[in-house]
Amino acid sequence: MASIEKRTTDSGDTSYRVKIRLKGYPTQTATFKRLTDAKRWVQDTESAIREGRHFKTSEAKKHTLADLVDRYIKDVLPGKTEKLRNNQITQLNWFKAEIGAHTLADITPTVIVQCRDKLLTEPGSRGKVRTPASVVRYMAALSAAYSACVNEWEWLEDSPMKKVKKPTESRGRVRFLDDDERERFLTACQASSNKQLYLCVILALSSGMRQGELMGLKWSDVNLKDGFLILHETKNGDRRRVPLAGRGLELLREHAKIRRLDTDLLFPGNVHSNKPIELRKPFETALKEAGINDFHWHDLRHCTASYLAMNGASLAEIAEVLGHKTLAMVKRYAHLSDGHVSNVVASMNAKIFG
Questions:
Q1: Position 170 in a domain
Q2: Strand bridging mode 28-32 / 14-20
Q3: Residue 193 falls within a domain, yes or no?
Q4: Residue 342, pLDDT above cutoff 80
Q5: Do 46 and 69 share a domain, yes or no?
Q6: CA 57 from centre of chain
Q7: Which of 46-60, 63-77, 85-99 has the least mean pLDDT?
Q8: If DSSP states are collapsed to H, E and C, what string results for 196-212?
Q9: Does one domain contain both 141 and 232?
């Protein structure tokens, strides 16, 4: 129910003070110079209150983007993996520095677009212009924060991120070692002065584990008897069971016989036993000795996926091995399994048509 009170000052100026009282909601007040404006505000506000829009709009005017970022970092990010948490803190703090003083009510899709375009053109922390994929990660972090703001805190009615187009990412790199390159590279790894390099490369090739997953392994995560290990810290946050077989399992069993007792890590550093071993220089030296160019540690993961595809594994099976939740990331390997797909189609046709 609304009431409008007319007020006249000593100087003769007239104003209209409005009060809206609806059962179950706080009283809302406002003052207008014209009666028509007061009546229009009553209609709009009462409708907004009944539809659940009014108080979200009020909250959006009370809080800034800096408030949003700070609360998300404090309340939500502690439940994420350490790597994701650190990355998103950096990404969200970039937005906080750019538009943190804006209230949430003032941040429109246009403001977000301006931030997106700046991310695409300015140099990042390493002095190079960010790739579209990197900018997508920045936007994903902000989108996640907005989702909490809308769904859990009810500071906003909707997220402006929904109307902002993300940059188009590249199709994705597919660099794997052919048979000759792989033989040369593994020979160089075996001859390396670093005794852990060969085993780590074999495990990476045979399992598709990321470098961080491999380096973070502890003996308590490994079951040598049944041939598998458990990854507790993965990129998507899910635990993953990784099967071990063949050469990798044999080498790991040998490695277990000489494990260090001052740490639970499979591959501890030589100086600090609580930190993983650093393999960057030995890896690069082995590549140089093998005469292999344009190859990075993460490409070992591409090797695993490519070899699986060429040996008839389906995209769903490759996604399961690599730990992807969807098939989108493994579609880049589809062309490598064309022969397998052709055989499946030929088999189907033979059965139904003879």
A1: no
A2: antiparallel
A3: yes
A4: no
A5: no
A6: 29
A7: 46-60
A8: CHHHHHHHHHHHCCCHH
A9: no
Model pLDDT for residues 224-243, shown as the tens digit of each residue: 999 999 988 777 667 889 88
Rounded to 10 deg, the angle between the 299-310 and 315-322 helix axes is 150
Does residue 21 share a domain with residue 100?
Answer: no
Does residue 174 fall inside a structural domain? no
| CA–CA dist 38, 227 (Å, integer) | 75
**Element spanning 32, H or E:** strand 28-32
| Residues 44 and 71 placed together within one structural domain of the fold | no
CA distance linking residue 195 with residue 255, whole number of Å? 10
- Structural domain of residue 138, as residue ranges? 65-163
Closest by CA to 311, choosing from 339, 331, 332, 330, is 339
Residue 46: the pLDDT is 79
pLDDT in tens, 240-285: 898 888 889 999 999 999 888 888 999 998 878 888 999 999 999 9
Q: Taking all residues of the chain, what is their mean pLDDT, rounded to a whole number? A: 86
| The total number of structural domains that make up the chain | 3
Quick one: 40 and 96 in the same domain? no
